[in-house]
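Hello Y.,

Per our agreement to keep a running log of every chain we model this quarter, I'm adding this entry. I've kept the format consistent with earlier entries: sequence first, then predicted structure.
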Amino acid sequence: MARFEFRLPDIGEGIAEAEIVAWHVKIGDRVSEDQGVADMMTDKATVEMESPVSGVVLEVAGDVGDMIPIGSTLLVIETEGEEEAPVEVTPAPAPAPAEAPTPDLLDGTDLESPHEQHMPAVAPVHFIPAPHPEATEISVPQPSAQALASPAVRARAKELGIDLSQVRAREGDRIRHSDLDAFLSYHGGQGYHAAGAARVDEPIKVVGMRRRIAENMAASKRHIPHFTYVEEIDVTALEAMRGDLNANRGERPKLTMLPLMIVAICKAIPAFPMINARYDDEAGIVTRHGAVHLGMATQTDAGLMVPVIRDAQAKNIWQLATEITRLAEAARRGKARSEELSGSTLTITSLGPLGGVATTPVINRPEVAIIGPNKIVERPIFVGDDIVRAKLMNLSISCDHRVVDGWDAASFVQAVKKLLETPVLLFAD
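Predicted structure for the entry above:
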């Protein structure tokens, strides 16, 4: 028998440490070569670490949420043969979010009508020795014709009572441990059970992307004096125009409301430059940006991400529609590059059909404003002495009161309202 030390490789340029966000093995487990053993997260990526050898797990480094220095031993495996020197294994590259966003939950792509930082200090590594090195045999269910997964993934799914046919693989056809984690997160954590089974209370440690979101949300509310302004907008004419554009779009992408709204925002921004700004409160400097790099809050299985539409003011509605679809899909599939997830100057956040009557979105610090369109509803309104059917939408904006005055926020929204209620102005120079 021999001890093999699996050391944490460099999983990102300039990264000094990584956070353990999930263990897929425990002491005493038998692992196979290339079997996933842990998920490690940095500011730039979440990577599933795979065992380079087969054997029995003797020791693991730390618990979920601990920070592990690059180059330190992640786990020790007992293998057949002579003693082996510790080695580093290069993991497969995996794109993932840059810094976690702060805006509220959002799908970031659709708004249909009713009829349509600083890295934490390195934590000490504590090894947990196994009382007995004997392996624990795993009972593996029979392969499923509908789902491709390793024996370890199948065993874990069976233990949790998860039907693998209900789990979506984010990369290729093979279901990985990270896909199970995403499924559990969506269904309320590790307390998931098959239909009809009793649910139990279970504490869930806040780690990984969820911890980063929590920290940034708290920092935003702690440092920024928010205020929210909400205005009702009649989008009846805009929806009619959108229908006509879609009916004659040819090979171009289908338009949602979002590209039209972005055009209105970009047209209104030059008169209200304080909205499209970032505030460095430590340096006491507000930078008013000339270009609109619009963050689009997007809900993914891994958590909330904000892909950025670069130079949104320079794109037409069809280009915006294409970019919205591309970025949202890249974020949801974990394919977005780090440069596509940073550098926004203003954020838009929408719950689409779930939008509700009004929202009070949280600012994506260090930006100074965030815009939240809400659900479109049909209601009767007065037009002169007549009552007519109209499609109405509330538009919310939250602002940093240190930089944006209430008058400016209200005036900006009124400018956007005029453009949306008279949609021909969206295409006027």
